[in-house]
Design a protein that fits this description.
Number of helices: 6
Order of helices and strands: EHEHEEHEHEEEEHEEH
Helix content: 25-40%
Strand order of the largest sheet: 3-2-1-4-5-6-10-8-11
Mean pLDDT: 94
Low-confidence stretches: none
Number of strands: 11
Radius of gyration: 16 Å
CATH class: Alpha Beta
Largest sheet: 9 strands, mixed
CATH architecture: 3-Layer(aba) Sandwich
CATH topology: Rossmann fold
């Protein structure tokens, strides 16, 4: 199956594209700037140029699933955060439905909450929470992955994963990417929202336990 990876030039999304390719999948890197193509050509990954801030005809991508792994970043101001993490996500959800794509995986945040207040980056958590809420109201076969603080170290291949972990923590981007890729292949992950942090349970086993 061809999988559109939105925000593919980002740190986590590029890992998703790479892992999909390594598993024999067909990732399609959604990029905003054609100048970013060289990175994916080197990975032998096809690209699809589109702007998340506008509705996109995903029929032209030929994909059967979408991974939203774009993000303005926790240090971005409220205006840009809303444009990417909320409006951009909603646009992509709508575009997937318009194209008849059923499978949609959302990379969110462990603190995502439409009513978040009192945090330094509450605008970010609100944007993520609103996008998650919107996705859950659709008929899409969604999975919402809510990691803790992302690190750039090597993946462990094991996690602590549950609908709510009730704590904060961190997790390697490499492991988050694997969770996303494994979710595409795990029926138990469909219709689920879950937190994920470093832990000791193998990723596939943790996902299957959601059933």
């Amino acid at each position: 199956m061809r999988v559109l990876v939105a925000g593919a030039n980002g740190n986590t999304a590029s890992r998703v594209a790479r892992q999909l390719k390594e598993r024999g999948g067909q990732p399609v890197a959604m990029i905003r700037d054609a100048n970013q193509r060289a990175k994916f050509e080197a990975m032998e990954v096809e690209t699809f140029v589109a702007d998340l801030e506008n509705r996109t005809r995903l029929e032209d991508s030929g994909c059967g699933a979408v991974v939203f792994a774009a993000g303005s970043g926790s240090k971005t101001g409220p205006d840009k955060t809303i444009l990417v993490d909320e409006i951009g996500a909603v646009h992509l959800i709508d575009s997937a439905m318009d194209a008849g794509i059923k499978r949609f995986i959302m990379l969110s945040s462990i603190n995502a909450d439409p009513w978040s207040e009192g945090h330094k980056i509450s605008h970010y958590y609100r944007a993520k929470g609103i996008a998650d809420f919107y996705l859950r109201q659709t008929a899409l076969d969604y999975t919402i992955v809510r990691p803790g603080r992302l690190t750039d170290g090597p993946g462990r291949g094991t996690v602590d994963l549950a609908p709510s972990l009730g704590r904060s923590g961190e997790i390697a981007r490499e492991d988050v990417a694997q969770v996303i890729v494994e979710s595409l292949e795990t029926p138990a992950a469909v219709g689920k929202t879950f937190d994920v942090l470093e832990g000791d349970t193998p990723i596939r086993e943790a996902l299957k336990a959601l059933d």
